[in-house]
Amino acid sequence: MWNNLQFVHPQFFILLLLIPLAGAWLWYNHRQRQVTLKLSNLKSLEQGTSWREKLLILPTLFRTLAAILLIIALARPQSMLKEEEINADGVDIMLVMDLSSSMLAQDFNPDRLEVSKRVAAEFVEKRPYDRIGLTAFAGEAYTQCPLTTDHRVVQEFLASLECGILEDGTAIGMGLASAVNRLIESEVKSKIVILLTDGVNNAGYIKPITAAEIAKQFGIKVYTIGVGTMGSAYAPVGRLPGGRYRFGLVEVQIDEELMRQIADMTGGKYYRATTVESLQRIYDEIDQLEKTKIQVTTIRRYSEEFHRFAFWGFIFLLLEILLRYTLLRTIP
User: Fold this and answer.
1) At what angle do helices 151-160 and 112-125 cross, to 10 degrees?
2) Where is 209: in which H helix or E strand?
3) Are the CB atoms for 194 and 243 separated by under 8 Å?
């Protein structure tokens, strides 16, 4: 309340200057009315100050508080309630995440998949007005989360992604086609796909170029990201009898020509992420390229608050009158 308080007639605060002037005048007038008494001894005064004498200050205190509160009420305090109406022309975004076993390669700490999930979740956090969905692929593809504005759900689905839940392989065309299918019926102007992979298309019955052509036909822009260091990386090379992955040095192979072709066909851009920092910069750049148009309308409402101050002002004035003419009554 106090942070949003404003006054319609602040000029009335000049009346506060009259309070110390009135106090000085009353003190001077009181001194002029004092009389002198001659006493034969001071024994009658040795009993100390009575409770009544200690409370004589209360009427003056209550009168002062009443005057201050009534002056504040005259200034007409109002509490301002500010509301914002946001009209956002959002972007529909489908994240496409590679879940092939090679995403467990440890050239990123702890591995490519965990870093990719974390950076993607941070990207989702920065897009409060967009609908975002999630598609996962390996040897096949499926929609993990349809387009939604509930970004907490998207982040939860991202966190739950793991290798091994799908048949192994890299079906880039299937992953892209699944995401494009979710965006085809969208009525928003801006529709994009962010496709992240670390390999070469080697599975699925839909060619990546075919999926890119469909995306182009429906005005869907595709940003492609190849994740993985240059050279070799410590990555899965097979599975042990218990189901755990067996690791070894593997040459990093990303079909960059294909990724660049998909991006160029649809008006997007291809990126190569070789470090965590570079992957973060890539998502930051995409965030800047695909800005959401937001129109903010501010509405201000006011609530009258003078009655609170007037009420307590009259309460203190009433207390002052009651004390002055009852318990603390004095003889002129």
Assistant:
1) 180
2) helix 208-217
3) no
CA–CA distances in Å: residue 5 to residues 13, 72, 77, 268, 301: 15, 12, 6, 50, 12
Name the token pair of 46: 């040795």
* Model confidence pLDDT, tens digit, residues 71-116: 888 888 887 766 656 666 789 999 999 999 999 999 999 999 999 9
Question: Is this model's pTM higher than 0.70 or not?
Answer: no
Q: 52 with 327: CB under 8 angstroms?
A: yes
Share of residues in the chain with pLDDT > 70 (%): 83
Query: What are residue 168's DSSP bridge partners?
Result: none
Rounded to an integer, the average pLDDT of 46-59 is 63
Cα 215 to chain centroid distance, Å, stands at: 33
Structure tokens given for 140: 């096949």
> What domains appear along the chain, each with residue ranges and CATH number?
2-30+50-81+302-324 (no CATH), 91-236+249-291 (3.40.50.410)
Where do the H-state alpha helices sit in 79-145? 112-125
CB atoms within 10 A of CB 93: 25
Helix (H, G, I), strand (E, B) or coil at 61: helix
Q: Residue 7: what pLDDT?
A: 82
Find the helix or strand (DSSP H, E) in which 223 lies: strand 220-227
Q: What are phi and psi of 50, to 5 degrees?
A: -80, 165
Structure confidence by residue, pLDDT tens digits, 218-230: 999 999 999 999 9
For 232-241, which contacts have Cβ atoms below 8 Å and span 24 or more sequence positions? 233/105, 233/106, 233/107, 234/105, 234/106, 234/107, 235/101, 235/102, 235/104, 235/105, 235/106, 235/107, 236/101, 236/102, 236/104, 236/105
In whole angstroms, what separates CA 280 from the centre of its chain? 20
Q: Are 162 and 260 in contact (CB under 8 A)?
A: no
> How long is the chain?
332
